[in-house]
Amino acid sequence: MIIKIEQGDYDRKLEMSDWRFSAAALGMIRFFRKCDIKYNVDNDILQYNSEYIEGREADKKYFQFVEWYYNEDMHHIRLKQLLEKEKLNDEEIKEVNAKLVANAVMKKIFKGIKYSEETKKTILNLIEENRLDIIKETYRYMLSGYRKYANTNLMRKEAGDISRLSGYSVDKSRKTRAISYNFNAANYNGKDAVEFDFIPFAFTKGAESIFINNNYTIETLLDANNTIDSEIYNNYDQDRPKDIRELLFLTLQKGTQFIDYDVEVITKDRDEEYYKTLFVRKEAIRIFKRIDRIDASKTNIDGDYRFYHIFNFPCRLTNGEYIQVMKTVCEHIINYVILDNFIDMLLKDGENQNKNSSDANKFKNSHKNLLDALIRVNQVIYKGGDMENPKMKATYVTAKEVVRSIYRECGSGEIDSGKTNNKKRAEKADLKLRSYRQKLISCLVFKNYERFIEIVLQLSAYSQVSMGFLSDLAENFEENKNLAYVFTNNLENFRVDKEEGEK
Question: Can you list the positions of beta strands (E) in 317-402?
Fold first, then answer.
């Protein structure tokens, strides 16, 4: 809420009573800092002077900030950059002419003008003379600008009795009884404030945006959301637009280091007229923190082990369908739901997908790397376990020892069967491994855990490898199921593993 102050250095204060006021506070602070405007923070209260947020002079500073904040979306900025060159090539001339008619305000100001050496100075002069109007109208109507967040007709207007925010704003000229309790329009509560004009500056940029309402204090609010900006836009393909699933994953992974409690996340899609609210529980935040920690320490041969990179690619199934892995993983973590069904499906599909593949690949699960990552995340969801659980590492080693033993038993010699002189024996080992793996996958999918243990015991007798993880499965299979997943997923030939440094 916003309260007037009668005494002191400031005449107004904002209390973060709900997400709208929190977002307004964040946007205003970013504005104040850039414009070198004095303000004060007291825990969860922002104090400031109204003259800096409303009025003619405030409007001027507001739009100057807009120009800086949305620099890459301002046509006149790019236009000036081009016209400052001594000589333009054909492509640049074409771009200049395109910018002159890029939107309604540009068309109006530069009507009938096209680039030439003679018009160059005229264009630059018109930019300077109409700079604020260009900024104002560009920002008002651009897809990821003001129209995305609020009613364009109310931009920089005094506070009224109808909220300017999208989803909260209504057209008073139309029937409004339906929006109020008992069909009485007088009961409608659509609080408005000039401060809401600063809400766009609180969200991440792009078609789909996110704001973390970590409003325990203003400092925690700043820390969480500033981290999103620095991490996402500096380190993760800053020039490429992100969809809401990717953005949500990165936000919750990188922006939660300052959060240790349930938190509200607000999302806004430019194609939707309303804001969405997502409540993220402390348990989910803990999972994302652990994902971030493991990401910081682990890389594969290409330096791209990170969960973000693995989950960010759609997964193609045997039937041609694509699954958005990022979306699936996010939903499971946020709702604190184990990934067992998803893992089971990929184990089964990966086997089916390679039935008719080339000799180089037909004995491996095509989803192996993705499954490795999913199993590790699943371990944390299960019981708050560590992704680097020693038992999981030991089970991985056991699977590799079984593979070695079967290759030796079949007389294939070299572990990399592609280089052995006896390919028939190597293929025999491949087939045996695949046969065992398929049986184990079937047991997992149909939850026949007793049969799973029986098959592993048979495999232990055949390979002469001790299966230490079996005692955990026998004690409580459901609780230790990820050990079964690790063993099954890594029970394959070494053609892929050789790339990981396996010998």
Answer: 322-323
